[in-house]
Design brief:
The complex is a heterodimer of chains A (314) and B (360). Chain A has eight helices and eight strands, in the order H-E-E-H-H-H-H-H-E-E-E-E-E-E-H-H. With 314 residues, chain A is an alpha+beta fold. In chain A, a hairpin with an 8-residue loop joins strand 4 and strand 5. Chain B is of the alpha/beta class and 360 residues long. Classes of the chains: A alpha+beta (314), B alpha/beta (360).
Chain lengths: 314, 360
């Protein structure tokens, strides 16, 4: 007779035990979806070479997937290659692939000063091609505080020396060469002499402007810096006096030339492609062509994924 | 004679206990689904005790949906707790008994809110995962362009698939309320109420969708946009349902087995029927002041309250007049954080001494 109560008590206890066991396992279950860290893929080209490896999703531009961010960032690769400001990559990458830090939830935004610096350097050049500074990059929404990404600190030049001439620190990207070509009155493949701290002299050059092919140019003096009394280093790695350079300059109101770009002549693919393009380039319609080519690209948001199967309960 | 009577009493008590456990653990089971799928549990996925036979079948057919059901339920409970922070009933989980998720043995307006937000949470998560391509049987929303989107903006992208989420949530959750489960007493009124509130949650999600538009390209004026339909966030859903909770409508079961407004309710509100998105309840709420196993209330003992506040979180209200104890608490936290390129955050540690009031 005493056996029955014991059995029932055991039964009740085992039932309770089952639920306790199930409930504790719950704490290791999948966590609710929130912002997350993912590796920056190599085809997010605007961030190649950036000093961090993980990005946060969704990003600052509300892209929810890596592929969406990649697709949207392609519109900005040309701007990056224009090299209109040294911090362009840091700024664009902080928007498309923001720094992801596991220990904290808040977004690391670019500083307003970083945004303004890039805008100041790039806005005019974008406007040349019909692209006003876009709303999505508006600097109004950023703030300068301790938790934002600051502009790059310029390296302090040695005493008695000044910064390298802008014309001599250009990059040989297709976009930059084509852009500089359209803004220059004088475009030469030339041998030059550095005959004063502020000027170079063309010793023997050939014009690359359309319609001016094979026109010989010699004994032209070009100022390196726009600042008065500006003397700046222009350390082109010239092996000997016969090395040829690509020289671009604008004619000033006083009739003299101011250098826009001085680069050694190269056999690199993008360089050759740009040089070849000089003969057929129509600078008046370049902006329109760029805008139209941008518009022709298929948009990420129009690539729909349709149902793979019909919903059926039974 | 005496020993026999005690044997039968113990048996009866255990049976009643089993029934209430099964009922109350329904959403606890849902929360465990992803655990089982993750392999932390030896128990087969679709044989968890809280699932009804029909639900077990759906679970087997749509195994890849179960993590979404679980996460949707968890998100809903989090939002529920956020909406009722500082209130006597705060959507707490009853950890001491090992059961997770709110327990509602009575057909109160709190039960109505809970069922509605859980149903909405599951619908939301399923619809979102369709959009992300995580479920094999569904994809982007098929919806056509609404009239309030400007004609020169394109309609495309990948919208949250609320239609699919709605159907799945309805079929999976409501199937339980339609089945006759021999393990529990068939309470038609409660089942109808649950279905009604589940449907209200789903409908609110559906009715508050709106187009989401994004700029693309290097456009300055953002005149190139593509739009698609997007679900409201769970925060927005919680806010809407909270309003519905405040205006919940009392109903009863009539002779023909249907829900019906109470006579005085109809007179007072001057309406003869409730909106499809209204929450309905049948029982008065307890005061939630004391722990009561029978009614499933946790009580407010040990809750943090706010001294001097006149709102729900104030000590006078939250502690139900029992008073409170004050404790001194020292909290270390990070402060004066700075981001350094590249890439780390450097913080100082600050000590803050605060006082915490806890209900007796």
């Amino acid at each position: 007779m005493m056996l029955f109560p014991v059995l029932y008590i055991l039964f009740a206890f085992s039932v309770t035990n089952g639920y306790l066991e199930d409930s504790w396992a719950m704490f290791s279950s999948e966590r609710p979806v929130g912002p997350k860290c993912v590796d920056i893929p190599s085809n997010l080209s605007i961030c190649n070479g950036i000093e961090y490896t993980q990005m946060r999703l969704p990003n600052i531009l509300e892209h929810e997937t890596v592929s969406e961010a990649i697709h949207a960032s392609k519109d900005w690769e040309s701007l990056l290659r224009l090299n209109c400001h040294p911090d362009t990559q840091r700024f664009l990458c902080s928007l498309f692939a923001p720094v992801c830090l596991m220990q904290m939830d808040r977004l690391i935004l670019p500083c307003k000063s970083l945004c303004m610096a890039v805008k100041q350097g790039c806005e005019n050049r974008m406007a040349n091609y019909g692209f006003p500074w876009p709303e999505m990059l508006s600097c109004e929404k950023f703030e300068d505080d301790d938790m934002c990404i600051k502009p790059m600190q310029p390296a302090k030049p040695p005493a008695g020396s000044s910064t390298t001439c802008t014309a001599c620190s250009q990059v040989a990207t297709y976009e930059n060469l084509v852009d500089q070509f359209c803004r220059s009155h004088l475009v030469l493949k030339a041998k030059v002499i550095r005959d004063s701290p502020t000027h170079i002299r063309v010793r023997n050059g050939r014009s690359l402007k359309k319609g001016e092919r094979r026109r010989g140019v010699s004994d032209v003096e070009i100022r390196l810096s726009s600042e008065s009394d500006g003397s700046c280093p222009c350390n082109i790695p010239v092996k000997n006096q016969n090395e040829k350079l690509l020289v671009m300059a604008s004619r000033q109101p006083d009739g003299k030339y101011l250098a826009n770009l001085v680069l050694p002549w190269q056999k690199e693919k993008n360089f050759k492609r740009a040089i070849h393009q000089f003969q057929r380039l129509n600078c008046q319609s370049l902006g329109r062509e760029i805008r139209e080519s941008a518009s022709r690209r298929p948009h990420y948001y129009e690539m729909r994924r349709h149902n793979t199967g019909r919903y059926q309960m039974f | 004679m005496i020993p026999r009577r005690s044997c039968w009493l113990i048996l009866l008590l255990n049976l009643l206990n089993v029934q209430s456990l099964l009922d109350a653990s329904w959403w606890s089971t849902v929360a465990q689904l992803s655990t089982a799928l993750a392999g932390h549990n030896v128990k087969p996925v679709c044989e968890l005790p809280g699932l009804s036979p029909g639900q077990a079948q759906v679970c087997e057919l749509f195994k890849d949906h179960m993590p979404a059901v679980s996460i949707g339920a968890q998100n809903a409970i989090q939002e529920c707790q956020r909406q009722f922070t500082g209130h006597r009933w705060n959507c707490s989980t009853h950890y001491s008994t090992g059961m997770l998720g709110p327990i509602h043995k009575m057909a109160t307006r709190e039960a109505a809110f809970t069922y509605a937000i859980l149903s909405a949470g599951v619908t939301h998560e399923i619809g979102r995962r369709c959009k992300q391509g995580l479920l094999t049987s569904c994809g982007c929303s098929d919806e056509t362009k609404p009239k309030n989107v400007p004609t020169d903006w394109s309609w495309g992208g990948c919208g949250d698939n609320v239609e699919y989420g709605y159907k799945f949530s309805r079929d999976f959750i409501d199937i339980r309320e339609k089945e006759h489960d021999p393990k529990r007493n068939h309470d038609n009124g409660r089942s109808l109420m649950n279905r009604r509130n589940n449907e209200a949650g789903r409908k609110i999600l559906k009715r508050h969708r709106k187009p989401k538009c994004k700029c693309h390209g290097v456009s300055g004026a953002c005149n190139m946009k593509t739009c698609w339909m997007q679900l409201p966030s769970m925060e927005q859903v919680g806010k809407i349902l909270r309003n519905k909770y405040d205006k919940a409508i009392r109903v009863q079961i009539n002779d023909r087995g249907n829900l019906q407004l109470l006579a005085d309710e109809a007179t007072k509100e001057r309406k003869t029927r409730a909106l499809p998105t209204d929450l309905v309840f049948m029982d008065d709420s307890p005061d939630y002041c004391r722990f009561d196993r029978h009614s499933g209330t946790l009580g407010t003992e040990g809750r943090v309250c706010k001294r001097g506040s006149g709102g729900a979180e104030g000590c006078d209200s939250l502690c139900c007049g029992r008073g409170y104890n004050t404790y001194t608490q020292e909290v270390k936290s990070k402060c004066n954080c700075k981001f350094e390129w590249c890439c780390k955050v450097v913080c100082q540690t600050c000590n803050n001494v605060t006082q915490v009031d806890i209900c007796k």
